[in-house]
Amino acid sequence: MDLIDNIKRSKMAGVEFKRFKSAKGLDGRIWSADLYLNGRKLGELVVEGFGPLATNVSSDDVSAAATALKGAGYVLEAPDEEFPVPVPPGDFGYFETALGFMAAEVEDLKALKKKAKVKTMFELTDGMCCEIKAPFTTLIGDQIRKEYGNRLKCITNEELAAL
User: Fold this and answer.
1) Which of 4, 11, 120, 122 is deepest in the core (most CB within 10 A)?
2) Are residues 39 and 109 both part of a single domain?
3) Looking at the structure, do residues 67 and 138 belong to the same domain, yes or no?
4) Which domain, by its residues, includes 73?
5) Running DSSP on this structure, what letter comes out for residue 57?
6) Angle between the 59-71 and 90-116 helix axes, to the nearest 10 degrees?
7) Residue 32 near residue 48, CB atoms below 8 Å
8) Interatomic CA distance for residues 32 and 39, integer angstroms
9) From the centroid of its chain, how far is CA 65?
10) Hey, is 148 helix, strand or coil?
């Protein structure tokens, strides 16, 4: 699953949000968070709707975070878009774009975890996503593996648990 893969990449890079908060504002999505790189707080981030990213992260730390994300293969692409986002020039452009995607991923992950409490979700190698209206158990996981065999790409509930 693209969402989970990209979250794994940001974790591998050591880039993470703490104290993430978001809301729907009059001018789009509003969010704020503290940004950390390898356990060290770099600064605060604020996006007030459609405006630009406001941050007190130093330019050296912006470069370090951008380099870490690029090195981990972080993908600047929304899962439902046909075309990838052009990679912005410079570290700050990449940084600002990547953090916007990370904020959306945090919100999507929260919704996916809520859904995973009541449904078993899995993905097949052909890209088809399936759901069973029952909470995940190891027995259900074994039955899915037996029925789909090599066609099974992943069981989303297990991927979420591994994060």
Assistant:
1) 122
2) yes
3) no
4) 2-115
5) -
6) 60
7) no
8) 18
9) 16
10) helix
Claim to verify: residue 75 and residue 21 sit in the same structural domain = yes
Q: DSSP string spanning 73-130?
A: T-----TT-SSPPPPPSHHHHHHHHHHHHHHHHHHHHHHHHHHHTT-EEEEETTS-EE
Q: What is the pLDDT along the chain (163 residues), one digit of tens a residue?
A: 588 888 999 999 999 999 999 998 887 889 999 999 999 999 999 998 777 888 999 999 999 999 999 999 998 876 556 666 677 788 888 998 899 889 989 999 999 999 999 999 999 999 899 999 999 999 999 999 999 999 999 999 999 998 8
- Asked whether residue 94 falls in the same domain as residue 145, the answer is no
Structure tokens at 86: 């052009």
The whole-angstrom separation of Cα 13 and Cα 134 is 34
Read off the tokens for 121. Answer: 């979700």
Provide, for the chain, the percentages of residues in helix, strand and coil under a 3-state DSSP scheme, each rounded to the nearest 5: 45, 30, 30
Model-level pTM? Answer: 0.80
